[in-house]
UniProtKB/TrEMBL annotation:
Pfam families registered for this protein in UniProt: DEAD, Dicer_dimer, Helicase_C, Ribonuclease_3
Family label: Belongs to the helicase family. Dicer subfamily.
The protein, known as: RNase III domain-containing protein
Superkingdom classification of source: Eukaryota
SUPFAM superfamilies, A to Z: dsRNA-binding domain-like, P-loop containing nucleoside triphosphate hydrolases, RNase III domain-like
Domain RNase III stretches: 1131-1139
Length: 1406
């Protein structure tokens, strides 16, 4: 539809007005503007009150039409329009995603199958559709998706809830032999009257002119072509045994080649055969290529001459192909093509014009492709004709070998052909039926039917493409083929008669009943009342297939699918043949006994019997919880409205910024608020009451060991006592005095920075457990340079000289006792002063005091964290001399100075403890000790020497196991693939962020940095309020909220094991199944129900050191999914065991290495639980390969070779170089399943299970440590980041591009230069690892040509650590320099290395 059609023509208006009154199928010629009528109707329906909140659905039969019609509607309406098709992955979308899509758009264009799935699973209701448009409406028959939508859903709705129907077609009648029935069936199926233009036919004929139809007779194909160079490719190939190579499917090639020879002649047939054989030989050699690659190991990663691989004789055939390659560059001779093509060339030659556009319709894809090429070689056509093939996708649509593939072309090539024809790049399409209908092409001058006509639809649709003025429709028919000629004339003569049938129609109620499909209707749909999801027997088979496709599979497993067998049966007294079907579901589906097989009742056809059995199976599986209430297996859910494994929706996190400002609860209250009290807390240092902490709120008692340069001191804060005053005015005076005293103490003991007005808390002297106002006044009023009240020697008095605090050792009145250099230095300082005083003759001998700004007293406060040693910056402890007149003194005592020096740490601990305690109270957490709660709620940005990160690393594993156990029990009949999706939905960072947001966890997190050089108490003006509670505004990354959720779990697990972790997780809203301990929640096996251990696995119990109560669990643990028996497969137990091993290994490392960084723990853990390590344990410790039950012989072979390889290896080799090995996953799966079986059998006794894990993995655990060599890629990235290079990347390539475009090699580029030649290996990950390892060696070598020093010209830059707000959902592409640099920076930060971080030395403390 062009922009010229903005104003409707009279005939379009005629149909539009009828469509407004009722349901209509517009039967109009191709190019008459049916889509514009649909646009008018969309505009109109959007103005109707009854359409409010409803959507317009535009259905199309083919994918290209989705984008075409989406574009048209978007360009001609202001509505929100979007297209949907299977290529977008819509079959993986969950209910919430579809709900969001429908709410965000007014018009949704989609293929019929997509919409059928949407309403089948109740993602949207048909009653919420105002207008349902069917493009190419003649498809609404039999079992097409169009007809299924109408039959299974539309006609089951009350009439007043049905949407308006509008259909479009150029050929409403399928069967011209019985046109009345054909038309009646379409009208009944689509619930609309077929309507043609009646009053404005003259105008229609102007805008959709009929072409001149001509029949061209051509001579039959000759048996020989003597002018064609001999031998032909076909005959030459016969001499090398083409038919003996079964993998080439020679018979299929021969049949297709014979067709091409008849239709096109020898040149076209050879072209087809040449490209087909070249592609098939290449595919088969690629298989050999891949097999050879997989045989490579790290000892000989590259060096195999793959181009010479020829184990099956393919190269001999390739040589014949190559010998004929030159033939297709030769000039085309007329006697090399068939008479049929010669006739076609004559037709095209006569149609030559500067503006020529034409379409040739053929039936077979390979003919279309070869014919397009052939026409491009015809000399008389080459200058002006530009042909291109347009065929469907076919079975080989994913091939990389271009349009010569017999099966079809890729979607990309198809779109290129369509767009090229529209833009004029090509002026001739050689197309199959894919171009007959729907696609919007410019009017053509010529349309040719290269093959005969088979139906009225084909005739009308293909002819309709020729709609230019004086255009032609040419039909090629073999001379003497009277049958084809008669069929054409029958269709031609019948069409006007058929058109009159629906031209007479008027919109009125359709009274005749719908004509049922040839097959019986079958059982009624299965409807889920809670959602309205509805499934018919027609859809049940595909749904079961999808369920089975989710079962995790390795490359050695056969594809697991439902198996159907149908048998003939004739019940007594019934002469009509009946069928029943038996459905067998894979044993890998964990179903109760008897639920894997279903038998249908007797049906009239095999199809009906299979569908009925499938529908019964779906009903049972839904009742068992295998399908959810939308009749779908579990799916990934993200975003607004997503649900966890318990079906609870979570808050929308999309609006949460990566960095957010939050109000965090504050301990101090407001000292200046007349409505609140003032509270005194005595501070005891090493048991001596030293000072008082004054706050605006009462604090709970607390105790902590704080660091001092002289060693740790014990500090205890006592119960609060509320202070009283006679009046608020006197309170203000005293509180002001306290603040002045506190400021004085801070400037002496901490730093000399300017303090804000209105401090949040005060540290004051006390006497008799009350404020010592006299001492405060003395300090505030008597400080200065008046020395009259100081004793002669002044010993012990605190003085300030040149902004540094000292204590007086003695006073010298005789300058001869003062070192001359000190006098000279003092004189120089005085000389530089403005109006200097005379040199003082009294000198002080002083000892420097260490302020809090020279060390961090905030670290090492938590007793459970290993103390890191001295934090004192080295300061010379020398005696200094200073003239007394240059110094000022203070009445503060040395003990008071020490107390103030502890204030930053004390204030931080008070704040941290306050938040920890109210977090436990407000979040209903169990009794996690203060110090663990503090650690779990402290962000790394605080720089206090600890953070949540270690506990978060442990908590991640706790979360995984606790969620796994709950899901395992809640969904006993869902397979591992479904369980894994449910678990992901319930543990990912966005889910944790949502739960943290719901709980308000952000209000308890400590993010304030401690920067002692400019430390100051928090000012009252910084106080904010949240629901009446005092807070302070902090900045934190949203990722930290998710991390702290896991850290709380880790803290609970460390203190109280899994029982306490379950309490914590339940309080935080996680999917743990409640706080009841597993031992009480899940029934223990009674002695009477115990089953004996089968003989096969009795020896395995001895190796484990564990006796099973339920021997069947052992059998389940060794049963591979490929083994078809009565035993369930090990996959569900493997799901559990994976989580158990993960937690046990990490917990072992957590306890053994209390000072290890989180990244070190994670890396060491990954080495212990990786596929290679577990496979090695499986083979060498337990010999599980000898017990395993599996089916494919290929598994046996690969396991044997793995066992042989492992027999010569040690644990050290396996753990250190695990990335170089790739044992079959089944070996590690067996071990994980076995540990899962122990957990279940022990009644979920984690201590017992952990003991088994640690015992079996003892040798591996000994070798795991924090400083293990890193993965080669990480090593490369960390080293590069440390050296400041930002222009590094990986590059993938194909080692043999002529044979295969598949990437199998990797090289490292530095500033665009390869460090080494490409490294080839069995897999890209392995090639990348080897390339990283070898390139790093070269880059680190100063004398190497490609050392980093020779390749890199980066200017060193200061680096900044990655933000803490990264949710982990962003992946960096290391094949780009920017992506590599970002990932390298992240790797470096994770490794705990320091990258020149520029941080302003400032900030606020609590």
């Amino acid at each position: 539809m062009s922009d010229e059609g903005i104003i409707p023509r009279a005939y379009q208006k005629e149909i539009f007005e009828q469509a407004c009154k009722g349901n209509v199928v517009a039967a109009m010629e191709t190019g008459a503007g049916k889509t514009f009528i649909a646009v008018l109707l969309i505009r109109w329906i959007a103005t109707q009150a009854e359409s409010t909140n409803k959507k317009v659905i535009f259905l199309v039969p083919k994918v290209p039409l989705v984008w075409q019609q989406t574009s048209v509607i978007s360009n001609h309406t202001p509505l929100r329009v979007k297209g949907f098709c299977g290529a977008l992955g819509v079959d993986m979308w969950d209910h919430n995603r579809w709900k969001n899509e429908f709410e965000a758009h007014d018009v949704l264009v989609m293929t019929a199958q997509v919409f059928q799935d949407v309403i089948k699973h109740a993602h949207w209701r048909l009653s919420m559709v105002s207008l349902l448009i069917f493009d190419e409406a003649h498809h609404c028959n039999k079992n097409s998706p169009y007809n299924q939508i109408m039959r299974d859903y539309y006609y089951h709705m009350p009439k007043d809830q049905r949407p308006k129907i509008f259909g479009m077609t150029a050929s409403p009648i399928w069967n011209p032999k019985n046109p009345h029935k054909s038309l009646a069936d379409l009208q009944a199926n689509i619930d609309a009257r077929v309507l043609a233009v009646r009053e404005n036919t003259a105008e229609l004929s102007i805008h959709a002119p009929a072409p001149d139809e001509q029949v061209y007779l051509y001579a039959p194909a000759p048996s020989e072509y003597p002018g064609y160079p001999a031998p032909s490719l076909q005959s030459h190939l016969g001499t090398v045994g083409l038919s003996t190579v079964k993998a080439l499917r020679a018979r299929d090639l021969e049949l297709r080649c014979e067709t091409a020879l008849t239709m096109l002649g020898p040149y076209g047939a050879d072209y087809f055969l040449f490209h087909q054989l070249e592609r098939r030989v290449m595919d088969l050699r690629l298989t050999d290529h891949q097999t050879a690659l997989e045989s490579l190991n790290h000892m000989h990663v590259d060096g195999l001459p793959l181009s010479e691989v020829d184990t099956n004789g393919y190269i001999a055939i390739q040589r014949v192909i190559d010998a004929h390659r030159h033939r297709f560059e030769l000039p085309l001779s007329n006697d090399w093509i068939s008479p049929k093509v010669q006739t076609l060339v004559s037709i095209l030659t006569s149609a030559k014009s500067d503006s020529f556009h034409g379409i040739i319709f053929v039936e077979q894809r390979h003919i279309a492709v070869a014919l397009a090429w052939l026409l491009s070689r015809v000399p008389e056509l080459q200058e002006w004709l530009h042909p291109v093939a347009l065929v469907g996708h076919g079975a080989t649509a994913s091939s990389n070998h271009g349009p010569a593939a017999a099966g079809g072309i890729t979607l990309k090539l198809q779109n290129e052909a369509v767009q090229g024809f529209r833009t004029g790049k090509y002026n001739l399409l050689v197309a199959t039926s894919v171009a007959e209908e729907g696609l919007d092409f410019q009017a053509c001058h010529l349309t040719v039917r290269f093959d005969g006509l088979q139906s009225m639809v084909g005739y009308v649709q293909s002819r309709g493409r020729a709609r230019q003025h004086k255009s032609s429709f040419a039909l090629l028919i073999e001379d003497g083929c009277a049958e084809e000629l008669a069929r054409y004339y029958q269709l031609r003569n019948k069409e006007p008669e058929l058109k009159k049938m629906y031209q007479r129609g008027r919109v009125k109620e359709i009274e005749h009943e719908r004509d049922p499909s040839p097959e019986p209707a079958g059982p009624p749909p299965y409807v889920v009342p809670s959602t309205g999801a509805s499934l018919t027997a027609h859809s049940a088979i595909s749904l079961l297939a999808y369920l089975c496709a989710l079962i995790p599979q390795d490359k050695y497993m056969p594809i697991l699918q439902p198996e159907y067998t149908a048998s003939y049966t004739t019940p007594i007294g019934n002469t009509q043949p009946l069928y029943e079907a038996r459905l067998r579901l894979p044993s890998a589906l964990p179903l109760p006994p008897g639920r894997h097989e279903y038998v249908s009742p007797s049906c009239l056809s095999k199809k009906a019997a299979k569908r009925t059995a499938a529908l019964e199976a779906v009903q049972v599986l839904h009742q068992l919880g295998v399908f959810d209430d939308h009749l779908l297996p579990a799916r990934n859910q993200r975003g607004d409205g997503a649900e966890d494994a318990d079906g609870r929706s979570m808050v929308n996190t999309s609006s949460i910024p990566k960095v957010l400002e939050v109000d965090v609860y504050d301990a101090w209250g407001n000292l200046h608020d007349p409505e609140s009290g003032v509270w005194l807390h005595l501070v005891h240092i090493d048991g001596v009451t030293t000072m008082g902490l004054v706050t605006g709120s009462g604090l709970d008692p607390m105790e902590v060991d704080l660091f001092e340069p002289e060693g740790f001191v014990n500090v205890r804060v006592s119960e609060p006592v509320q202070l009283e005053w006679a009046s608020y005015e006197s309170r203000k005076v005293d509180v002001s005095l306290m603040e002045q005293y506190t400021v004085e103490g801070i400037q002496w003991g901490i730093n000399s920075s300017k303090m804000p007005n209105g401090l949040a808390y005060h540290l004051i002297p006390v006497r008799d457990n009350l404020p010592d106002y006299e001492e405060m006044r003395k300090v505030v009023w008597q400080r200065g340079r008046d020395w009259s009240s100081i004793s002669a020697d002044g010993k012990g008095v605190l003085v300030m000289d040149l902004h540094r605090p000292y204590t007086i050792l003695t006073t010298h009145h005789d300058m001869s006792l003062v070192p001359p250099e000190a006098v000279e230095k003092a004189a120089a300082i005085l000389a530089s002063a403005v109006d200097p005083p005379p040199m003082d003759t009294v000198w002080l001998e002083l000892r420097l005091l260490v302020r809090a700004c020279h060390y961090s007293s905030t670290v090492d406060r938590l007793s459970h964290i290993p103390r890191s040693g001295s934090h004192l910056k080295p300061l010379p402890q020398r005696t200094v001399f200073a003239p007394r007149g240059r110094c000022r003194w203070t009445p503060l005592s040395l003990d008071t100075f020490r107390a103030f020096r502890l204030l930053p740490a004390l204030a931080r601990h008070v704040q941290d403890t306050f938040r920890a305690r109210i977090a436990r109270k407000d979040l209903s957490l169990p009794a996690i000790p203060d110090e663990y709660t503090i650690e779990a709620l402290t962000l790394p940005s605080t720089s206090v020497g600890y953070s949540y990160q270690r506990l978060e690393t442990l908590g991640d594993s706790v979360l995984k196991l606790a969620t796994s156990v709950h899901i395992f029990h809640k969904f006993p009949h869902r397979h591992e693939g479904q369980l894994a999706i449910l678990r992901t939905n319930s543990i990912n960072n966005l889910y944790l962020l949502a739960r943290a947001q719901e709980a308000g966890l952000q209000h308890f997190l400590t993010a304030e940095p401690i920067l002692t050089k400019k430390w100051r108490p928090r000012a009252l003006e910084e106080t904010t309020y949240l629901e009446g509670r005092p807070c302070v505004r902090n900045t934190l990354g949203r990722r930290t909220m998710a991390d702290c959720m896991e850290a709380l779990l880790g803290a609970s697990f460390v203190v109280g094991g899994m029982d306490m972790a379950l309490e914590t997780g339940t309080s935080l809203g996680l999917c743990f199944g409640g706080a009841v301990p597993w031992s009480a929640r899940y029934a223990q096996p009674s002695p009477s129900s115990a089953t004996s251990t089968p003989v096969l696995v009795q020896a395995l119990e001895s190796k484990l050191g564990y006796k099973f109560n339920n021997g069947n669990l052992l059998i389940e643990a060794i049963t591979h999914p490929s083994f078809q028996g009565s035993n369930p497969s090990y996959q569900r137990l493997e799901f559990l065991g994976d989580a158990v091993i993960d937690l046990e290994v990490l917990h072992h490392l957590f306890k053994k290495y209390p000072s290890a960084q989180p990244s070190q723990l994670t890396w060491a853990r990954s080495r212990g639980v990786c596929n290679t390590t577990l496979a090695f344990i499986s083979v060498t410790q337990l010999s599980l390969h000898k017990y395993a039950l599996y089916a494919p012989f290929t598994v046996e072979k690969i396991i044997e070779s793995t066992v042989d390889a492992f027999s010569t290896m040690t644990y050290e080799q396996v753990i250190s170089h695990a990335w170089k090995l790739d044992p079959p996953k089944i070996l590690a799966d067996l071990f994980e399943a076995l540990m899962g079986a122990v957990l279940v059998d022990s009644g979920y006794d984690l201590e017992v299970t952990g003991g088994v894990v640690r015992r079996v993995m003892a040798e591996a655990l000994k070798l795991l440590h924090p400083d293990m060599p890193k993965h080669p890629i990480s090593e490369l990235m960390i080293w590069v980041a440390k050296n400041g290079c930002t222009r590094v990347s990986f590059k993938k390539s194909a080692s043999n591009p002529e044979l295969s475009q598949r990437n199998d090699s990797v090289t490292v580029l530095v500033h665009g230069t390869p460090v080494l030649p490409p490294i080839r290996a069995a897999t890209i990950p392995l090639a990348k690892c080897v390339a990283a390892e070898r390139s790093l060696e070269t880059l680190m070598c100063p004398g190497a040509e490609h050392s980093l020093g020779n390749l890199c010209s980066c200017v060193p830059k200061k680096k900044v650590q990655p933000d803490e707000d990264d949710m982990g959902d962003e992946e960096y592409d290391d094949e780009t320099e920017d992506g590599f640099a970002k990932r390298a920076k992240a790797e470096l930060a994770a490794a705990g290395a320091k990258v020149a971080v520029a941080v302003a030395d400032g900030g606020n403390a609590p």
